[in-house]
Amino acid sequence: MTHAKFHDLNLSNAVLIFSDIFVLFGIFWCVQLTTNTPDPSGDLYVWDVINVVHLIYFTLPLQLTLLSVGLYNEKIRESYSGIAARILVAISLAYMLSTSLYLITPMSFPEGFSREWMYTTALVALVLVRYIAIRSRYQMLGRLKVLVLGAGERASLINRCMRRQSDRVRIDIIGYIPMPGDNQETSNVSPIFTSNESLEAIVQQNNIKEIIIAADERRGNLPIDSLSWCKMQGIQIIEIIDFIERESGQVAVDHIHPSWVIFNALSTRNRVGQRLYWLFNCAIALFILLATWPMLIAVILMIKWEDGFNAPVLYSQERTGLKGKSFAIYKFRSMRTDAEKMGVQMASRADPRITRVGQFIRKYRLDELPQLINVLKGDMNFVGPRPERPYFTTQFEQSIPYYNHRLFVKPGLTGWAQLKYPYGEGIEDAIEKLKFDLYYIKHRSLILDILILIRTSEIVLFGKGR
């Protein structure tokens, strides 16, 4: 299993997860001690199956909601007050989710057990844990000292794909070693080792844990003997494309070879797996329909209120799906009825065609709720590349390498690209989103889909949807 398969799980956020679990266990145990009488055997508290279930009903919803609001992402850019607000949202959602569990199961909440006090204590404790973690720079736990073998165009991929400091919290790039054949004229990497020291000496002096192979021309130029010695010392050696994929969750499409796509780009399911996956998607779609029907009615009324009783509420549009087959996608109408009187146009961030209600429902992705019909019909999955209009698909296929590989899987309501990249409205954005789509297609699994679904909550709750 490669590092990429963990999809953002590493030592720093693993420590944070276990710290939260430890704190929540402690809170639950303290509440039990203060609300239960001693056992006849003399023990203050006896752990039985019932109490274990109560513990799960308390901790599991909290862990899920903390994940859903982005609090296990060490690259999150929020102030202390912003993180405290997210914790409050997570606590509120967990309280409702836990209440739902008690309502749909035969379990009853213990008498004398103050849930409000327990969740309030959890709020204070989790805010304190985050404060201590950030002050102690928990993101640096397990940070790798990295050496890059190469200082040319391929090495500059690191700067292009990992521009922000938050993108590099897991690694400490000690420097770049120029190699014969490197195109340093187009590169802006630094620091560059200019001494004549051997690779072994540089590795030992700087306590290097990983070497990235990023030479522009590898054939006959790599120090094979030195790299073999490094590998024997337990130093990890990784190719630049695999490094970018692991650290950023994207595939550098400009620098991969056709063989990469042929051998790596598609994770497939057998026929039974496809049927089970469709049932999984249908179950989620039906659950969301049952949970959001009042919201659906509210959106319909808002659209009618703004545009008049005779104005259409839904609209359908042709999109490109699995293997290039077209299908009709359904959405709540968020633009004027004459939005395309000038021809086919790609939506933009501040599109003047969007109505006032449309601005709101697009922000919180409410306009996409009718796509649950597409999921039930089998046109779409919940998770996958976003479906594009055939007009733009044809354009992108002609100008973007490997763009048609997005059609290897069904499109989705949400996806890895939606989590990792902001709203896109042109060919440059399409290229960037393709990098994340190829990563998803290569690594897709039920676990990754569930992770994306949970983390999509952050987009919806904090108005980051498009």
TrEMBL record:
Membrane protein topology class: Multi-pass membrane protein
UniProt GO MF annotations: undecaprenyl-phosphate glucose phosphotransferase activity
Transmembrane segments: 12-34, 54-72, 84-105, 117-134, 276-303
Pfam families, A to Z: Bac_transf, CoA_binding_3
Cellular localization per UniProt: Membrane
Coiled coil: none
Main subcellular location: membrane
Gene Ontology biological process terms in this record: colanic acid biosynthetic process
Domain called Bacterial sugar transferase: residue spans: 279-461
GO cellular component annotations of the record: membrane
Assigned keywords, A-Z: Membrane, Transferase, Transmembrane, Transmembrane helix
Matching NCBIfam families: EPS_sugtrans, EpsB_2
Membership in a protein family: Belongs to the bacterial sugar transferase family.
Name the UniProt record assigns to this protein: Sugar transferase
